[in-house]
Specification:
Layout lengths: L1 E3 L7 H10 L17 E2 L2 E3 L17 H4 L1 H9 L3 E2 L3 E3 L7 H15 L10 E4 L5 E4 L8 E2 L1
Parallel strand pairs: 1-3, 2-4, 3-5, 5-6
Antiparallel strand pairs: 6-7, 7-8
């Protein structure tokens, strides 16, 4: 599931789609096994840097915590919830950052990154960019 992080959740149209598709008898409940055993990974972007998404930061919680309703939904419908792919600070990414992140995401989608591993990009400010390693996904890089 891929979307820009919007008011601590997915955009309204994606929420509507989820409400329509994740129906009783299809996704959960009696006979609702269509999604059992499948996996769900959220790929999302934030305009603000990772430093804004932490205790004491403007948004108070890490994005991974704010995505917990997706984890709960995956559990309800019998799916495995995979670590999210989060890109922070999209407002200040340059073409090189975007190319690197696209490569990481492509590798993740093609299964070239071990299960349970994701990458996040964070840029606290435009003068000090950093691509961080998360759970050993990809070597760190700094400029």
């Amino acid at each position: 599931m891929q979307f820009p992080f919007h008011w601590y959740s997915s955009p309204a149209l994606l929420k509507q789609w989820s409400d329509d598709v994740l129906a009783y008898g299809f996704a959960y409940g009696v006979g609702g096994t269509a999604l059992h055993g499948k996996s769900l990974r959220v790929a999302t972007t934030t305009g603000g840097g990772e430093d804004l998404y932490r205790p004491g930061g403007l948004n108070r919680f890490p994005v991974t915590d704010l995505l917990r309703p997706f984890d709960a939904t995956a559990n309800l419908v019998g799916m495995r919830y995979e670590d999210p792919f989060v890109v922070h600070g999209t407002r200040v990414l340059d073409d090189g950052d975007l190319a690197e992140l696209a490569g990481r995401y492509r590798a993740l989608l093609k299964g070239r990154v071990p299960a349970g591993v994701s990458a996040r990009h964070s840029r606290a400010d435009s003068a000090a960019p950093a691509v961080r390693r998360v759970q050993g996904a990809v070597p760190s890089r700094s400029r």
